[in-house]
Every structure is written in structure tokens, then in C-alpha cells.
What we know:
With 418 residues, the protein is of the alpha/beta class. It folds into 2 domains: 21-221 and 346-416, Crotonobetainyl-coa:carnitine coa-transferase, domain 1 (Rossmann fold), CATH 3.40.50; 248-338, 2-Layer Sandwich (formyl-coa transferase, domain 3), CATH 3.30.1540. The chain contains 20 helices and 14 strands. It has helices at 30-40, 71-75, 89-100, 113-116, 121-127, 152-158, 161-164, 179-200, 213-218, 224-231, 266-275, 279-282, 290-295, 297-308, 313-322, 333-338, 341-344, 387-393, 398-407, 413-416; strands spanning 21-24, 44-49, 64-65, 68-69, 79-84, 104-107, 132-137, 208-212, 248-252, 258-262, 326-329, 348-353, 357-362, 410-411.
Amino acid sequence: xxxxxxxxxxxxxxxxxxxxxxxxxxxxxxxxxxxxxxxxxxxxxxxxxxxxxxxxxxxxxxxxxxxxxxxxxxxxxxxxxxxxxxxxxxxxxxxxxxxxxxxxxxxxxxxxxxxxxxxxxxxxxxxxxxxxxxxxxxxxxxxxxxxxxxxxxxxxxxxxxxxxxxxxxxxxxxxxxxxxxxxxxxxxxxxxxxxxxxxxxxxxxxxxxxxxxxxxxxxxxxxxxxxxxxxxxxxxxxxxxxxxxxxxxxxxxxxxxxxxxxxxxxxxxxxxxxxxxxxxxxxxxxxxxxxxxxxxxxxxxxxxxxxxxxxxxxxxxxxxxxxxxxxxxxxxxxxxxxxxxxxxxxxxxxxxxxxxxxxxxxxxxxxxxxxxxxxxxxxxxxxxxxxxxxxxxxxxxxxxxxxxxxxxxxxxxxxxxx
Length: 418
């Protein structure tokens, strides 16, 4: 079977959002990542940045390669960069002209900011009633917390994710990624797709997609709130396992790695007992049913842990996989990089970046067989690299471009190069 690696080239099929025009405002991660998702699937994304430094994401990230952020190579791909000063009247007019021709306007400033610039949904819809206006914020556009500043860490906290994460009695940890931002971006992406379907298939007008970090985190809580309401029970952090779901935990191996073993179904438990050469446990009244195993989860973890430590992670994974037991080694970034599975799936793809050169980039998710997403262009490393092109398309003549550049209303490589 031929593998589609998700990198554009001659003769490759167009993405499902090809022809869709998106104007992206905002900065850092949650909003711009929505633009990345749209661009990955073929949308023409024009990112509006402030002249000068542009989006702070250009400089974020702990590590540097070729004196530049690696993070920007991902979040900035498949986009054009236009540098406009939105605090000036002409900058707002030009941004409004872009919005008037857009299918999607995307922003993630604090609520009220776009309205002050004359670029809020009411102003945009007055000129472009079919536009889908997507807003990503910490706490949403309505509700008593709308004006609070919000980052992923705060949204994960108030949304309930931080409380149930970690180990009992320990400070609630965060993931080593900006989980709340990514969840909010995916929520906004889903909302945009729904609104486009309603517009293009059902004939609905343009509408506002109101996505929030707190909302997206809350949506992950399953039945936690109902459990509190009906049973008076607050779901607490449980470390590396879920209570009464046994056996399903991480176990240390001989080479000091961790492997997940999930045999919490009756059939899987019988297979695991056989692999452990403990067929007697399969019919033991303490373990024969799901509820019985849950009552004796500590004993199960002790027995499985004592058995697993005699194998390396690779040996244990192979042994359990052959027996049909759900398992997986706990991967680091290095493990992912060296496992060919991720290239076979197109999760890692070879990409030529304008600053970092040949690199292994995260691929496009999800996979579509007929109109797959693609990395079509490198991140634009110069702020406003496409200002001249985009504004010329709007009808701005060369003379005004020069005067706007001199006044600092716009920026771009055409005027910053001696």
C-alpha cells in the first residue's frame, strides 16, 4: 500500500478546505493553532500580525535551532503573513477589507478587543453576512468570567482537569504541553466545520463560534459533575490508574522503563493470567469478574508488577501483544522518533523549512483518503512577508503601500530590506 505522507507536491489532491479564505488575528497558541489546522487541510490562511516582532510565538519555546524557535515552524506553516497596525484607522480599514472577503475570521484576543478596532462580529457581518466568525478565549464571550485573562494553565484549573490529574495528596500537576490551548483550538475547529456545514448545506447565515479554554477542558470531565450531584462523590486524583478498573496500570520493567498493561476485561484478564503462567488466577473468585478485580486492584498491581520487572519493555510488549493483551510502552519523544509506525501513519513527515532546513515535522491529523491535509508551505519567518502581495490583491496601489510603510501602519520585507 502506498503511504501518503502529507507533504504537498505536483499532482497531489487538493485539501477539503481548498478555496476557503481565512483571516487569522491573535497570537500565541490557541487561536493560531486553529489557523494551522485550517491551513493543513487546504484553506488559504492570511495571518495578521503587529508590525515589528509579530506573534510572540515566533520566539517561544525553550530550545533554538539556527537561532530561531522550532515551535513557530509548526504553528506558522501553511499561512501568509501580513503586518498591520490595528491601532491605526487605516490598519483597521485594511483588516476590515480582508474580513469582507473571508469565509472565516479567527481571533483570540480578550473579549471586546476586536470590537474596539471595528472588527467585531457585528461589524464584520454587516459587510459579510456569510462569514463564520470564530473566537477563542480563556472563558468565552459570555458569563461572569469573560473579562478575565486566560492561559491554558488557568483554563485547565477552573475546567476541572487539573484537580483530577496526578496523585492523591500531591499538588495537581500540569501536562508538559499546553493541553488547554490545544483542546480549545480543536473545539473551535469543530465549531467552524459545523458552522460551515450549516451555511453551505443548510443555507444558514454566518454565525459566531465561541470557543473557550475552560469550556474545552470541562468537556473532558465525563460524568464527574453528575456523580457529585447524584451521589455526593467528588472524583479525586488516582495517580496512574482509574479506581476499580483493574488491572490497568503502568508497570516498571527490567530496563527501568514503563509499560501500560490494560487487562480489565474478563477475556483479557484470562489471557494475561496465562501469559504470566498463572492460569489458576483466571478462575480465582477474587479476580474472576470485573467488580471482583476492582476490589482487589492493589493485590493485582503487586502481582503484575513483580512479574513485569523480569522483562525489558520491548520483551514485555512483544510477549503481551502476541497473547492479545492490550499493552504499550510509555514513549518519550525519542521513542516516537525512532519508531517507524509514526512515519507509516504520516504522523512524522519530512518537510523542508525555510530556516531549519530538512526536518521531521508533525504530520496532519486526521487522515483523509481522498482529500488529505498537507504541509504546503513553510512558516513565514519574516513578519509581514506577504503584506505587499495581499494588500495589492485588495487594490492598494504602490504609492499608498510606500506611505503606509513609512508611517509604520504596515510592515513587510519589501520595505524593511535596504
